[in-house]
Amino acid sequence: MSISNTAPGDEEPRSIDDQILDAAAELVAVLGRRVQLAEIARRAGVSRPTVYRRWPDVRALVGALLTREVLSTVERTPRGGTDREALVEWIVEVAVRMRDHPVLGELLRSDADLIHEYVVQRLGTSQRDLVDQLCAAVLAGQRGGTIRAGEPAEIAAMVLLITQSTVQSHRMVADLLPEAAWRRELSIALNGYLRP
Fold first, then answer.
1. Are 30 and 60 in contact (CB under 8 A)?
2. How far apart are the C-alpha atoms of 150 and 136, rounded to whole Å?
């Protein structure tokens, strides 16, 4: 399977970086942590040195892929309004899309060490972006009176932690919290935390 240099609907050719990340996404979704840099280069139609000039190893490349996929998922999830309920609905939908994402979901299943590094040990680029977006949304909800008083950045960080841990642990409690219950209980938790 070869990767086109132009994405469907795009007039501009895909960058080499995007070609490589697209190839990595395809392979990670199938192979998980077993993906090799040589396979990624071959799938992207580039040489290994081309990949190494951009990322020193597979872990760094997968880290960049995680950032791209998280930010893209957030960007593609529409928001309905600026009040607390609309924010919670958006957060839950983002959480479901992250949880069910073919690349992110596979990494949650197959590479706990990588997820631990990029999600638990440090605040990565995508998480900082999420906190910034949540902070702005919290502030808008506070101005509208639907979100409790408090430091918006602190509230945003806690919302990220609540949601992130729910996404990471959902398989562990899948028998206790089937899909509808999982969504409902996450919504209740977030609404309870944010309500004035």
1. no
2. 13
Distance between first and last Cα of the chain: 53
Yes or no: say if 196 and 146 are a contact pair by the CB < 8 Å rule. Answer: yes
Confirm whether pTM is higher than 0.90: no
Contact indicator for 39, 73 with CB cutoff of 8 Å: no
Predicted confidence (pLDDT) per residue in 163-177, tens digit: 998 988 888 888 999
Side-chain-side CA neighbours of 146 within 13 Å: the count stands at 15
* Euclidean distance between CA atoms 99 and 111, whole angstroms: 14
Give the C-alpha separation, 90 to 73, whole Å: 12
Asked whether 66 and 46 are in contact (CB, 8 A), the reply is no
